[in-house]
Structure formats: C-alpha cells, structure tokens
Amino acid sequence: MGVDFPAELRQLRQTLTSILQVCDLDAVRKQIAELSEQAAVPDLWDDPERAQAVTSRLSHAQAEVDRLERMVARVDDLEVLVELGESATDPAEAAETLVEAERELHAVQKALGELEVRTLLSGEYDAREALVTIRAEAGGVDAADFAEMLLRMYLRWAERHGYKTEVYDTSYAEEAGIKSATFKISEPYAYGTLSVEQGTHRLVRISPFDNQGRRQTSFAGVEVLPVVEETDHIEIPENDIRVDVFRSTGPGGQSVNTTDSAVRITHLPTGIVVTCQNEKSQLQNKASAMRVLQAKLLERARQERQAKLDALKTEGSSWGNQMRSYVLHPYQMVKDLRTEYETGNPAAVFDGEIDAFLESGIRWRRQAEKESVQ
Predict the structure, then answer these.
(1) Do the Cβ atoms of 207 and 328 come closer than 8 Å?
(2) Is residue 276 within 8 Å of 257, Cβ to Cβ?
(3) Cα–Cα nearest to 133, from 176, 177, 169
(4) Which CATH number fits domain 130-227+313-372: 3.40.50.720, 3.40.50.620, 3.30.70.1660, 3.40.50.300?
(5) How confident is the model at residue 313 (pLDDT cuts 50, 70, 90)?
(6) Buried b (16+ CB within 10 A) or exposed e, 124-154
(7) Is the pTM of this model over 0.90?
C-alpha cells in the first residue's frame, strides 16, 4: 500500500505550524537584532564575561532561526517533490521521484519530532545550559566503573551533537572507575533535555572484577542542574563559605599539578561541598567552583518552592528515584522504568545513543505534568 502523501503532508504542516507558533520566530528575530546591537558596542570586550554571554546568546539565537527556516524549506521542497512525482508522465520517473519523496518524508518526520520535543521544554530553567554530576552508589568497584561508563555516555552524546563540554572535577576510585565527576554542557536547552536523566541508574552484568564471574548489580546517581545566569542573583556572603586549596591529582594519585591550584568550597549554612581542579589556576578553579555552588543553591531554592507546592496537593505518587536499568546479563536490554521505552542494544546506549530515551522521558514528564493539574 502506497503512502498517502496528501494526508502525511497535511500532518507535517500542522506540526510545523504548531512548532513555529511555540518558538515565536518574530520574537527570536527581535532578540537577534537587540543582541547584534549589544555585540556591536565598541567597549563590549572590556567585560569579557558579559561579552562572551552576549555573543553566545546571539550565536544560539541565530542557529535557532536557521534550524526553523531550514525545516520550513524542507517541507516546502517535499511538497514540490511529491507534486513532481504525481504529475510526471513517465511511469518510471514518477515511481523514482515518489520513492525519493517517501525517504525525505520519513527524514522530515524524524527531524520535526525532534523539534517538537524542544517545544515541550517550557520549564523555568529548561532553556539553560546544564551541570551534570555522576556519583558511584551501591556496588563497590562495579559502581565506580559504572559511573565512569555513564560519564563517557553523556560526553559521547554531547560530542555526537557537537555540544561543547567542560569537565570541572573528577574523583577517581582506587581500583577502577570514578567516585564522582561534574561537567558542564554548554548548549541552550541542555538542562531541560538532560533533566529527565536525573535519578538512580542500575547496571546488571557479570562483574569483570569478580574472579568467580558472578552477576553483580550496581548503582550510580545522576544529578542535573541548570547553569546559573547573571539574572539569578544568587548572593553568597564570603563568611558563608570556607575555601580550601590542594593539589590536583589524576588516576592512581599521579600528580597533575605541582601547585595547590585545586579548590574545595564548603557552603557552611547548608554543608554543600564542591570541588574544581580542571583549570591550571587557583583563581579559575575557584570561579568554576563558585558557579557550581551557585547552581546547587539555585536548585535547592527551586526544590524548596516545589516542596511547598507539592505540600498543597492532597495526592500524587512518585515513581521512585530509580529511573533506568542497563542489563548486560543474562540478556541485553536498557529500559526506562518510567516510560517503559527500551532497546536491546546497550553498547549503542553506552556510546551516547540516548536521544530516544531523552525524547520519551520529556514526553512522559509533560504528560505527567498535565495529569497533575487536572
């Protein structure tokens, strides 16, 4: 049975129209004009941090417009291609053109689906860049190894999309893997996209560290925070923090720095501790650590507001903190415990192919939010 091109094209147009309404192209173009004016100010680079923020926002806004305009052009071109195929007098030419149109139809549907997911990211901080922390939990050396596997998975995911990443701090475990790691993904909507990854991840496999070859279950926790912006006004008085400096170390205790450049900041009122040893300079490490601390305090404030809202609700059950299982033995499967989306290819998932999990998680969360207000 052939493709019903008129019906499929109508559906594409409806979806595209909905996306354009949500994205508000005119507003983005207005933002580009304002940012272009700011970027043209002669003394902009007197304040490098602000200059970087302006040029980065301008670049991302232009990329957003380009992405939407390309999608409009692709749908227009697809309609022309279908028209050519259906009006061709040579049957062979008609068939060839319609086969090409069907291929493009599927490609456009996939691309529109990805764009549509972006429109579902409308939370308070969803448009922000992301700070991700991974921690080994129960499971000993297997958990530390699993935490490192998850770190690689997210960095590979970012690399596949061309997103810039920066690892702020890595605490290596003694035998293998990592105790924890914190990194930043510099891409708009990285927080909204990855926030559905927050929770406990579980790995089931034959342990490579068990000389009896027994099956081991291990756990790792993922925390995702929005990056703090100037408008957030997270003030941290100097007497609320304790700053300790120490030498950066790499795997196996190898010194990677001969000066005390690594920084640990303790927020005394809350007990929150952050470290950064990525940069060569103590000042740079302190600035990075302060950004992480501000993000944690911002998230703490958001959680406190959310807790007050939740307390007003008389119902609402939680699915629990455990959100995904990775099974390598006795069968191969990765399954999201909330959406029930699954795949039989764990190797691809660990290599960064997690977009389908992210999409299903975002759609699941939006549906859960709708149901909670009904």
Answers:
(1) no
(2) no
(3) 169
(4) 3.30.70.1660
(5) very low
(6) ebbbbbbbbbbbbeebbbbbbbbbbbbbebb
(7) no
